[in-house]
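Please, structure for the following, as tokens.
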Amino acid sequence: MVRPAAFGFNAETAGTNVFQRAPEGVSGATVQRRALAEFDALAGALDAAGVGVMVVEDATEPPSPDAIFACNWVTFHPDGTVIFYPMYSPVRRRERRPEIVGMLERMNAFDASRVVDLSIHETESRFLEGSGSLVFDHAGGAVYASLSPRTDAGLVRRAATLFGYDVVAFACTDGNGVPVYHTDVVLALGRGFAVVAAVAIAEAASRAMVLDRLRSTGREPVPIDFDQVSNFAGNILEVADNRGNPVIVMSSRARAAFHPGQLGVLERCGRIVDADLSTIESVGGGSARCMIADVPAPASPSAKNRGKREPGPGEG
């Protein structure tokens, strides 16, 4: 998790993220102070639940208003793969910090065997924003993606090919017919559950395809509606505590949006940890899942291609 140094409203992303609201009558310093308090509350709640949290301080210069959303520029994978991603907003490209991979390795928290850099595609105006754009189902051998200006279909296929996964691609719109900017606001997968806003999937055939694939995984479905999407009920993440038990992370707003029966399903699947993220959600347009670049257990020391960097198309 990246503790923000200059959290604020990013006008470059607001055109595609309907969750963002420019603060009115509140100074930038106040927004930053509130965001820090919310960040610390979530990180502290995870720590108290026995979840290992590595907090990295944001670089102060140049300022990065969205650095708190660490899951968009990097993903870490069970086989030791690390992927760096092309970002839609030029100001967000400042967030990429490859040295964090080295920090994790020195802490024996991750064993990087392969680094794939897709950021070169920014020069082609093709974007893919980490686990915002991609919901990986490593157990089911699939990657789910809601296509949008921030989620390029060709790059989705490239990411899936790295692991030999199937692509489950579709298009989503919100209740007003506006394209959904990131997959992780309409879909969340845990070991035992699948939170999905099937109502947002624009085409009936695509909706059936997604639901059939999810059913085949044996997860218990938790369908959410447009109102729940707008309250970040889809932007949740299952992690593990230090005993390997599942912990489901969400904002207090998201928790309040779930119906009792839905919460019952989630509680059977893991311990729920939530925190008030109202400033982060309103000004930044992202919630708990966006704030966490989840790191799996270290890959085996015998993993092949240790330290190898895989060039993107057009490199080398």
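Residues 299-316 have pLDDT under 50 and may be disordered. The chain is about 30% helix and 20% strand.
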